[in-house]
User: Fold these one by one.
Assistant:
Number 1:
Amino acid sequence: MHQPKFVMFFDHHTMKACPDVGHHLQADEFASSLQAAGVDLLGFHAKCNQGFCYFDTQIGNRHPSIPPGRDLFGEIVTACNQRGIAVTAYLNCGLSNEDAIRHPEWSMISPKGQLLRPDIYGIGWINPYMRTMCLNSPYRDYLMSLIKEVRDKYPVAGFLLDSFNGFPCICPYCIQEMQKQNLDWRNEEVLQKFGRSSALRLAEDISALLRPQENHLLVNFLGISPKDNARIGSYLECECLPTNPAWGYDYLPLTARYYRNLTSGPVLNMTGRFNDWGDFGSLRPQAAVEYDLFFGLANGMRPNIGDHFHPSGKLNRAALDRASRIYGKLRQYEPWFSDAKNLVDIGVVLPDVLRKSPTMVGATRMLSELKMQFDFIDADIDWSPYSLVILPDEVILDDRLAELVKKHLAAGKSLLATGRSGLNPEGSAFRFEREWGVKYLGECEHVPAFFRLTGEFAARVPDMPLATNTKGFSTEALPGSTVAGKVVAPYFNKHWDGVYSYFYAPPNQDTELPFMVLNSQCAYCPFPLFEAYYQQASVDLRTVLAIMLEHLLPKPLLVTDASLPSFARAFVSGKANQRIIHLLNYLPELRGKTLIVEEELPLSQVKLKLRLDGRPVNKVYIAPGKQPIPFSISEDYLSITVPEMRGYCMVVVEA
Ligand SMILES: [Zn+2]
């Protein structure tokens, strides 16, 4: 199987009205430009979402303006392969507009009876989803035959198969299938589930057709879950255009820490040179794209720059030159990025599937700002590498998770929980009450609730009742627990009493309700701390988390101070005799409606400490120039100061 290093993907959805598709394509010139940019894998359209094929098909709809005798896809595959560049074929599966026009009976019918779909994603009438394909109609066999045609005809390295959205459909094919399976098609939930299972079933059948493992093909299905992709595909791909608010800058940090534990195959990090798909005229600043790609590389993800291919085949030199400069820069670090694995202390358990929920975004931000090294995990992932497991806000302990928690604690390791995490499925009591150090009493009656830290911890936050920003739970400390903070009640809750609207609800009295409880192996906060941080980004709430972490993880892998700002990101990876510290100093800024990174930010005199776990150190240097930096070692920590950096900095510690 091709092991992707530097990837480019070209979107090529082409309207029927384009009069000159491929007229100016010179495949050799295109492939030479990719070669000059150091690209080793190209993703290119065999079939677009408009339903047109760019390969020499006997079955599908050739775009009407492709000159007779031309095979755009085939020419590109040949020219690329001659230069050592592998090509994956992109086929849109869920969308195929031209086929839907020719065969209206292949279209989905929405639960409201619509054939046209301006309702999808609320985009309106100008959107690629106006007609969506029913994956249970005869379109299914037609699509499979197109994929087979590409597989048999071209020496491709794999397939990127798009738009397995799994929308619900009530066309006659789906209704008949649901009736056969005794499913209540009038029930919206059943329809949703059936839509998703239809998409997954098609992906499974395509996987059986392509047999990615035996045939050494890179195969990924966009739209199905990463776990299903790990099972029936052969690599994972995170599609994320951070300038599109649906993804934003909080999505990649989630997937980066989850995907790497789901597969032993490659993980790609696809960003774009533009702000969104279909945005032909934007070229994001070089630093913006580098931030996305360095972030991925520091997490073991291979870079993929998304671009648009002009229908005529004319090359966009400005975009290619920028990609070439970016890859030229990234390539200098390749000896250290290659095969490095991330090293972490903490496993954060997903409350359900990986998604950009307030809890998950809050957790990612707080832990990243504190420079903690962590993975996202679930019950299917081995917990044994983690010395600390975090159950954020809403992790209910079913039998499977309870067993893992029990095993983790029995191994003498630590656990941090917040909010309702740790409750039994009935929501009536903590499954490990003694370890949590508190008894569950129910929902906290105070809204808004405030908190105050107590004892030695009081000095860590301002001396005033501080906002919790969320609704929490009432608990009672068990004997032997250290209560490090208490809930402060307001004069009254915010409410409407029929005459007065109690908008102003200041803090009044300290209560005995714990806000933070520390025990030998566990730390617990009865408020959903991570969601609270998402709501108001309270630095004081982050200090509460820091105190719990210091208690449970007194010797984290990486230690920094204010010389590395909160918005900077730090990762540690390792291989053979090397430990690698990745520092990223970029700051996405909201300019009007758009989050943008324009430049790399400078830093100087950055102080770092790296836990050595007993490993010797011979030299420390900054890559790629290998400038040595002085170091000292004390109590199993290496101490260094990075004299100067800008944007991305790689520090290499060698035994
Ligand atoms: Zn259908």
Number 2:
Amino acid sequence: MLPMNVRVKRVETAAERDSSLALRRRVFVQEQGVPPELEPDELDEAADHVLALDEAGACVGTGRLLLQSPGVGRVGRMAVEARCRGAGVGARVLQELERVARARGLREIVLHAQVHAQAFYDKAGYAPAGEEFEEAGIAHVTMRKRL
Ligand SMILES: CC(C)(COP(=O)(O)OP(=O)(O)OC[C@H]1O[C@@H](n2cnc3c(N)ncnc32)[C@H](O)[C@@H]1OP(=O)(O)O)[C@@H](O)C(=O)NCCC(=O)NCCS
């Protein structure tokens, strides 16, 4: 798939927040079968959220950054609209989350990667750390990257 032309930015308005949560619902609840009570969750309030907008202004990608521990951020809820995958949107969202993390003075990012998405994070410089485990009924592995 050709790279897609998207504008990636931090979520600043209620409308941007709603459209990123709606995308997460489509991807995690409807597509992947995550229980709806886990999506959204109580950590969203404190997180930095990023979204990718297509040329028509629709939200086609999103992700969030949380503070895990002093100096360490945690990326999660990475989701790209199914029809837009493989076009560089997820990579752009992840880069923006890393930019926000650096701006916050963080030195490392950890995340729980769904095992099927491990190669995506691998290409972005993340390395696996530890055994596979199950979260929301999906196999995951912890991955880390120094910023
Ligand atoms: C995982 C996800 C966010 C990736 O987003 P994406 O926009 O499709 O990824 P990109 O197009 O930016 O891919 C960047 C690179 O990773 C590779 N990649 C992406 N997904 C991959 C996968 N599942 N397996 C192998 N490689 C993958 C791409 O080929 C690309 O490689 P390149 O730089 O050599 O061209 C997206 O597939 C998604 O939303 N999946 C469903 C929800 C999900 O599983 N989220 C992850 C939770 S941990």
